Give the backbone structure.
Amino acid sequence: MKNLLMPGLALALALMVGLVACTAVDESSIVKTKAEDGTIELFDKNDNRDCYFSFKTGKHRLEQGNDCRNNELYSFKLNNVPSAATIIVADARDCGKDENFYFKFKTIKYEVSTDYIRLDNIPSFEEGAVVAPGLRLIEMHAPGATIGGKWSCLEIIRSE
């Protein structure tokens, strides 16, 4: 009888240890179901922050209903923005392709943060290139015209 109880006791003990191990989850492995908003910061010629936007879907004409200066911005930074979001940066006030430049980016990793991304440098990349870790250039229209200091529109399209 003693020999029959020992395997049963060993099995019960193993199940309890396994149960405890399964409930002790490493928090770094937990995937968030919804990303935080994050922000996009816009900078002037001297890399001074001019303004920022909460990273929510919307089209923003610079200097219209916000603190950003139109035609005074040269770079941007992303701070903890979600993946699969589209960012359009353009000279045209409606974010179209009919002015000096149009850049369409896609975030390609979870909670993207970048250093300064200078608009003047974007034409040196090919479409499809990763311009910063977690940020891919999807489409570009820049026919050799002035880019720095001509930014007029920002559009954010979050994937929900």
User: Anything to note?
Assistant: The two ends are 61 Å apart (CA to CA).
